[in-house]
Amino acid sequence: MRVYLLFLTLFFCSISFAQNSISGSVSDSNNQPIPGANIKVVGDNSGTISDVDGKFILSTSKKFPYQIEITALGFGAKKITVSGANQKVIVKLLDEETKLNEIVVSASRTPERVLESPVTIERMGIADIKKTASATFYEGLENLKEVQMNTSSMSFKSINTRGFATVANVRFMQLVDGMDNSSPLLNFVIGNMIGVSEIDVQSVELLPGASSALYGANAFNGILFMNSKSPFTSQGIRAYAKYGQTSQQAAGVNDYVDYGIRMAKAFNPYFAAKANFTYMKATDWYATNYDDKTTLGRDRSHINYDGINVYGDEVSTNLKGVGNALASLGRIPAGAVNLLPSTNVSRTGYNEVDLTDNKASNTKIDFSLHVRPFGNENLEVIWQSKFGFGNAVYQGANRYYLNNFFMQQHKLEFKGKNFFLRGYTTTEDGGKSYDMLFTGINVNRKWKADSQWFGEYAGAYIQSTLGGMTPENAHKVARTVADTGRLLPGTAGFKSAFDQVTNEASVLSGSKLVDNSRIYHSDANYNFKDIIKFAEIQVGGSYRAYQLNSHGRIYTDASGPINYNEYGAYTQLTKKLMDDRLKFTGSVRYDKSKNFDGNVSPRVSFVYSGGESRKHNFRASFQTGFRNPSTQDQYIGFNVGSAILLGSAPDNLTRYKETLPVSTTTGQFFAGGTSVNITGLNAYNNSYTAASVGALTATGNPALLKKTNLAFVKPEEVKAFEIGYRSFIKDMSVDINGYYNTYNNFIGNLNVVAPLYGKAQDAPNPAGGATDLGTQSLHALQNGNYRAFQLYTNTGVEIKSLGFGLGLAKKVYKDFEVGVNYNYAEFNFDQSQDPSFEAGFNTPKHRVKASFGNEKLFDNFGFNVSGRWNSEYLWQSTMVDGIIKSATVIDAQVNYNMPKLKSTLKIGAANIGGKEYTQVLGAGSIGQQYFASWTINP
Asked: Structure pTM?
């Protein structure tokens, strides 16, 4: 509490210094005010920005006369000498085409024009955020070239660039003010849940390709940088409020609210502070895909139905096996077993919409204190704290409701003109989150145990058959009998069982997800450009420590947290040659993770500026990248119902232990008892591939069985080639790029089945006798005495991907702007060489995006329309595979500036008149969204 009181005291109290103030206005060549222009004292840290009327007041301790510099995106910079306090500063800025002159930092860790970037880069600035027709700036990122969104929930959107991504995009990195937003437990970004407010965004930069050479192992297929505004240069109180509605066939029409406030003040040249608060609440897109997970065309009428958004029906068993068990207990005559078919039957499940409140929400709070000991940018010390919590649905192997999920980050940073040194920590708390699959399974078990349900089903089937019913009708009667007493959604009994299950962590009776994991991270960079003159040389490094703590619910950490670390160091040299027309950049990075050998990632690039004005810029680059197996790949030990997700770290395999019952008298004889103890080593050393077990089930032929033969997971590697061209030709911005990637040791999943007794071997002999271990393993498979695992492994097959992108933008008439971009992407993987491996490219082959707008249509009025289309594509994930259909989406907005109120009103709509579409198979279909927003001091 004392810390917060100190913060409030520092934030709202000022220190008196001798100050002088000047006032003025900034306008364009048409005498229209320019809001958001930066006015800065040359040689001093003092600065401010213009308001919606283009007016400003600048305070500084510097004595007259002095110079001020005025800059604004889309206009040329201007310097003016101020001689006294009474001088009225009237500034007129000239229009300038800036798309290719915008300054970016991320591509080379040093400021450079977009035109000279050595790799493909996309940027969204303040003006772009204002123009976006999407409900939020983060959703607006989907209109950038090479971006494909994977929407798991209204409050959880995952960015995919260059493919091989699900909702859990472990190959993509997101930095907010230098901090990695990845979840410590999950190892991937959870959208913008702890990101940045749209009224605090200064710029967004996207590198869609491999960036391991500068940013380390996780920057494998792309990296997003979100930078917030400094309270030294962007002061005052800003606020926004949005209200709207969402419309979806399944969910109906529902309210949507989103509001936020930003407060920032520079008390003097030495101290500044800011705080942000945002809140969003909506009804989530209902997930109502009732197709069967495994069999096309199968519906709820099937006896072994397993619906995509239905949970509890994963519990399935062989009906004849149930009969044998009942007969051995003397509950039915032995002869009655012959009336039962040897087919699997599943329990009746619950729809997802009945297992969640379908609410999406997100609250973000952050504050930062900024100290400049010398009153300038030579040294700035920053303390920043960020808090994010809310509700969302995450889709992995199952669907998980993140209920009151909480994540926080705290950073201390020292930065100057040529260096930075920062350290931060990220912690999270799962809150009341739960697994919807186990919620369905264990709510079912609350009112009737599985053994009782299947026993009643078998008994009713026998009675119906003896009564002369057809098999189809006998199954209907059997299900009705077994479902007697079923808890119905909306009843008090169902709610009581639901509450008990979602508050219990054990998968045997509950579904709660427990997580208190954290990350400790530090990194540093120094640029020697003021010391070494022949070239620009940078050096840097990073260190990260993980502490995984799921209390045994998700990872094998029941006896205590799992700790491991990784570190890296890099250097980069940039040199301009040939009268500064040719820019060479070379970099190399070394990274080492606890469980793996070190990796070296080099990158080399050339940028040539041709033409008299040097606006024809050709670029080419080659780099290697790698990705260390994630925390899940190494340490998970998670029961998802149909299988155990098992990480392959050697100590993880021995830590995972389980005791399983053995059915049938013969099986207990082979196993030496009624139960068996297994570890993770069984999955690697004594198992069959799930594909071959499926073949056995379909044909009954043991010769098709294949013993699992795989090594522990290791880092995956990529070699990335890229060429590109940027220019401005006859008032048209042109950006062309092409890439070709080769992946080795690509990480994926392999499903295996481990028999509880016997020894797995290729084509086991079915007639080998009681002492034949292969025969014993076959008996285990045929009688349900096995454990299924989903392992993390590398494919030995090389995967290749290639893509092409074209972006064009032009002012077509006065201030009307048109933009269009196209992306082509495909991959090549010889499935016949590794039939059980899924690459999970999950990216459309064709994407087209376009925009049309005018921010100066007439006085204070602007509009923008954007549209996008993608071709259909194959979706592969650990939960479900299938085809995602092509989609056309049109968004639009109109905005009106009200100078007297210092406000902007925006009315927008997403997916206008369009069909509902899906981005993640298993997630809710995305409907329409309409909103109105009011922003004060935009």
From this structure: 0.88
Are 67 and 40 in contact, with CB atoms under 8 Å apart?
no
pLDDT single digits (tens) 299-319: 999 999 999 999 999 999 989
Q: By the 8 A CB rule, do 935 and 199 touch?
A: yes
SS3 category, 671? helix
Q: Is the pLDDT of residue 95 over 70?
A: no
Q: Tally Cβ neighbours within 10 Å of residue 459.
A: 20
Residues near 782 by beta carbon (within 8 Å), at least 6 away in sequence: none
- Give CA torsion, residues 609, 610, 611, 614, to 10 deg: 0
Residues 6+ apart with CB under 8 A from 255: 243, 244, 245, 282, 283
Give yes or no for a contact between 772 and 714, defined as CB atoms under 8 angstroms apart: no
pLDDT above 50: residue 539: yes
Q: Which residue reads 């703590």 in tokens?
A: 549
Q: What would the pLDDT profile of 584-594 be if each residue is shown by its tens digit?
A: 999 999 999 99
Where does the pLDDT of residue 573 fall: very low under 50, low under 70, confident under 90, or very high at 90 and above?
Answer: very high
Counting every residue, how long is the chain?
938
294 has pLDDT over 60: yes
The dihedrals phi and psi of 375, each to the nearest 5 degrees, come to: 75, 15
- C-beta separation of 714 from 726 below 8 A: no
**Bridge partners of 75?**
95
- Distance between CA atoms of residues 205 and 108, nearest Å: 12
Q: Compute CA distances 522 → 357, 366, 543, 593, whole Å.
A: 39, 20, 5, 15
CA angle 730, 734, 737 (to 5 degrees): 155
Contacts of 182 (CB under 8 A, 6+ apart): 173, 174, 188, 189, 218, 426, 519
Tell me, what's the pLDDT at 1?
A: 42
Structure tokens at 82: 């101020």
pLDDT digits (tens, 9 = 90+) for 351-368: 999 999 999 999 999 999
Output DSSP code: residue 222: -
CA dist., res. 831 & res. 606, Å (int): 36
| DSSP run (H or E) holding 103 | strand 103-104
Q: Check whether the bond before 65 is cis (ω within 30° of 0).
A: yes
SS3 796: coil
423, 521 in Cβ contact below 8 A?
yes
Q: Contact at 8 Å (CB) between 201 and 129?
A: yes
Q: What is the pLDDT of residues 707-743, one digit of tens each?
A: 999 899 999 999 999 999 999 888 899 999 999 999 9
- Please state, in angstroms and rounded to a whole number, the distance separating the CA atoms of residues 625 and 631: 19
**φ, ψ of residue 180 in degrees (nearest 5):** -70, 125
The H or E element that residue 788 is part of is strand 786-794
- Residue 325 has phi, psi (to 5 degrees) of -65, -40
Which residue carries 């890229």 as its tokens? 722
CA neighbor of 16 nearest in space, from 51, 74, 46, 61: 61
Residue 555 is given by DSSP the state: B
One-character DSSP codes across 60-81: ESPPSSEEEEEE-TTB--EEEE
Single-letter amino acid code for the residue at 307: G
The C-alpha atoms of residue 586 and residue 536 are separated, in whole angstroms, by: 11
Lowest-confidence segment of 323-327, 345-349, 851-855 by average pLDDT: 323-327
b/e map 198-231, b = 16+ CB within 10 Å: bbbbbbbbbbbbbbbbbbbbbbbbbbbbbbbbbb
Which helix (DSSP H) or strand (DSSP E) does residue 449 occupy?
none
What lies within 8 Å, CB to CB, of 584 at 6+ separation is 573, 574, 575, 576, 577, 604, 605, 606
| Confidence tier at 209 by pLDDT (50, 70, 90) | confident
Return the structure tokens found at 145: 């070239």
- Asked if 774 contacts 712 with a C-beta cutoff of 8 angstroms, the reply is no
End-to-end CA distance of the chain: 33
Q: By CB neighbour count within 10 A (0-12 exposed, 13-18 middle, 19+ buried), where does 143 fall?
A: buried
